């Protein structure tokens, strides 16, 4: 599917890439001695493990989080978990302090996920409301001000996602009959009666990016303490 809307944090991605560049240069320095002699001891190994752990954090927090909407549905990638919801399963998309998707889950359960990316503070939300009221008072165009009231980045993103869903929901309705039998058989994105549902799963690469270097750091610290 071709993404029709992809939302990421530019600041977080720039910070993450900056850290990755810093970590790479330091790992090269430890390995080949760019600024001095290369060192192959327990201290260097611990520093390298810490740099890898920091890189894992940069990936999980800075590079992974995103909201992606395409013809089939909307996906919310948070630091450690992935949520994929077909348009037919989406109940509501809201944007207050964060973009939130309410959707039908397995077994008839109603679930809600909040996106890590693109969060707005309550203070920013209040300022947006105040700005809309001020614009209405100054211009007298109350209807226009009402349309943009609370138009924070999260509210605008929720509106965009909702509009994409409304455009593609009819196509999803048409395809339901053809997919029901297969979905009921293999359970892929459907509950027992064939209704489409959202899926929540752990991201194996994200968990590994944190768990592996963290375990290495612990082992090296223990070895250093014992030695």
From TrEMBL:
Positions with biased composition (Low complexity): 172-187
Residue ranges constituting the Low molecular weight protein antigen 6 PH domain according to the UniProt record: 64-134
Keywords of the record: Membrane, Transmembrane, Transmembrane helix
Positions of the UniProt region annotated as Disordered: 163-196
Protein known as: PH domain-containing protein
Pfam families reported for this sequence: bPH_6
Source organism, top-level taxon: Bacteria
Spans through the membrane: 16-36, 42-61, 206-226
